[in-house]
Amino acid sequence: xxxxxNSTTLASVTHSRRDRQVSNAYGYFDDSDPAILLQREWLRxxxxxxxxxxxxxxxxxxxxxAAAPDAMDEKVGYSIACQAEVEAATAALKLQDNLPCIxxxxxxxxxxxxxxxxxxxxxxDDPTDFPWPHIASVLDDLKKIAGSPPLGRxxxxxxxxxxxxxxxxxxxxxxxxxxxxxxxxxxxxxxxxKAE
Length: 196
Description:
Blueprint: H1 17-25, H2 34-65, H3 68-98, H4 107-120, H5 132-146, H6 156-195
Helix pairs in contact: 2-3, 2-4, 2-6, 3-6, 4-5
């Protein structure tokens, strides 16, 4: 019987826990896997969305508690906070939409993609319904083999910068809406004057 090329031994794809920690500590996977970069950006948008949600809830309470003269100022701040939360959530959704277009280059990249999938629907559906326990099980198995992507909670300064950016976008949006409303009111006044 002749030898075939199929008898070659494949390199092992598993790493010891210590090797994974060293790799993660030095960020070898950080910049080389687009799936991990996507997860990092998604987590930033998600975290900013949660921070802005809490801000919006505090401002809502102030609007409800404010006296009539102060209510207008409070409502503007509340409107901006609501829109900023929408902007951050929209940014996270856009990143989720990019997930199928991103090819993971490592097992950690696959873990990152599954983390986004599991995290995106965690608040919407019942986490005990199919397929969530199954996906969580696969994700846990992969983490035991490959480790976790080298991610953590974004730094406070990063979150503040992101929140200010979403608030600026919201303020622009609110300002444009007010201008449009004023234009509509102005046009109707002009039409009434011409009709008289």
